[in-house]
Design goal:
This protein is 45% helix and 22% strand. It is an alpha+beta fold. Helix 2 packs antiparallel against helix 3 (152-191). The chain is elongated.
């Protein structure tokens, strides 16, 4: 594609603003890397969809899982994150605690209709809290033991989903190293 550049004469080479072309190409690479990050984010959402569909079906049953994958876009850094959280649900009578907190984060609550063992349906306030599961910095994955207290479907689907999220974490880490190296090149070029 750029083979013709090797055949330029000295005068043609000097007229060509190589420095400007390098800056332009570095900017193109930066935009391409950011697009790849967006695609990794979307791929993470796709990879966790099956887990979430099964999680919704198991809600309020004996097969309900409390561990969930969290694929998020960090606006502050413009990067995707691929994590896991343990949700802790606490149930209260909706008659005694009728107000809910709709905002996301610690203490989010909602009203639900829960089917009791005797078959009756009761209006219940569900309070959600969560905590992150630590990711091992060396392996970029969570421990398989995180799934040990979960229903069988969550153990199997969780471990399969974690393998995919681990791969996405490693790819994001590699992209981060490339972005840092591009920044070093730009800084060196500015010193010239």
């Amino acid at each position: 594609m750029t083979d013709y550049l090797f055949d330029l004469s000295g005068e043609e080479r000097r007229r060509l603003n190589v420095s400007e072309l390098i800056q332009c190409k570095l900017a193109e690479v930066g935009r391409a890397l950011q697009e790849i990050r967006v695609f990794l984010y979307l791929e993470g959402l796709n990879r966790t969809d099956v887990y979430f569909e099964t999680l919704k079906k198991s809600n309020f049953t004996a097969e309900e899982a409390s561990i969930v994958p969290r694929v998020r876009w960090l606006k502050s850094d413009n990067v995707p994150t691929f994590q896991w959280e343990v949700f802790l649900k606490k149930y209260h009578s909706a008659l005694l605690h009728p107000t809910t907190q709709k905002r996301n984060g610690v203490g989010k609550s909602y009203l639900a209709r829960v089917k009791k063992q005797n078959g009756s349906i009761v209006k219940t306030k569900v309070c959600l809290t969560s905590k992150h599961i630590k990711i091992n910095n060396r392996t970029r994955s969570i421990s398989p033991s995180a799934f040990k207290d979960q229903p069988l479907w969550a153990q199997l689907a969780g471990e399969a989903t974690e393998r995919e999220l681990c791969s996405l974490r490693k790819q994001e880490a590699a992209l981060s190293r490339i972005v840092k190296n591009i920044a070093v090149i730009k800084a060196l070029r500015e010193k010239q």
